[in-house]
Amino acid sequence: MFDIGWSELLLIGVVALIVVGPKDLPGMFRTLGRFTAKARAMGREFQRAMDDAAKESGVKETAGELKAMTSKKNLGLDALDKAAAKFEKWDPAKSTSAPKGPATQALADKKAAEAAERKAKLAESQAAKAAEPAPEPAAKPAPAKPAAKAAAKPAAAKKPTTAKKPAAPNKTAAAKPKPRAKKGEA
After folding, report:
1. Are 16 and 25 in contact (CB under 8 A)?
2. The pTM is what?
3. Digit-coded pLDDT (tens) for 127-159
4. What would the 3-class secondary structure string for 126-180 be?
């Protein structure tokens, strides 16, 4: 409750000896002890009263039922925990499966034989490639000089541009008469 160490208690005792005096100090400690004992007794009595009230109202039973309803076993989470534990411990290199039947065993043997045959063919083809002499690289032509490149390309002929035809006059605008001005308007 209070975090008072031995050094603090010693300091309090020295200050009490100086302030109260050596004559009245034992009486003061006796009174302080009685007060502390009464406070503790009141705390214990209060705690007992609270426990009795909880027993009478059925809070403990309700709390127990609530814990039982939300337990992992009742919710099915215990099976999930077991599966997760198995998954965490699973090692694919050391997989232990159920005993194989004759059909399953024959299929597994066939697959193993096919895999071994593929490995053998791959090893043969790699050995054949290693035995063949490597082809010599072809001589690269010398790069052409920049002037020779320009001379080698023919000049691109430009397309003649065609002249645009003049736009035809708007016949509809010429055919419509202009509106007459009303009398009195300028």
Report:
1. yes
2. 0.30
3. 888 777 666 666 666 665 555 555 555 555 555
4. HHHHHHCCCCCCCCCCCCCCHHHHHHHCCCCCCCCCCCCCCCCCCHHHHHCCCCC
Q: How far is CA 1 from CA 4, 44, 173, in A?
A: 9, 15, 108
Q: Is the pLDDT of residue 48 over 70?
A: yes
Distance from C-alpha of 28 to C-alpha of 144, rounded to nearest angstrom: 117
Domain ranges in the chain are 7-70
**Max CA separation in the chain (angstroms):** 138
Report pLDDT digits (tens) over 17-29.
899 888 998 898 8
User: Is residue 54 a contact partner of residue 60, using CB atoms and an 8 Å limit?
Assistant: yes
Report the C-alpha gap between 146 and 58 in whole angstroms.
103
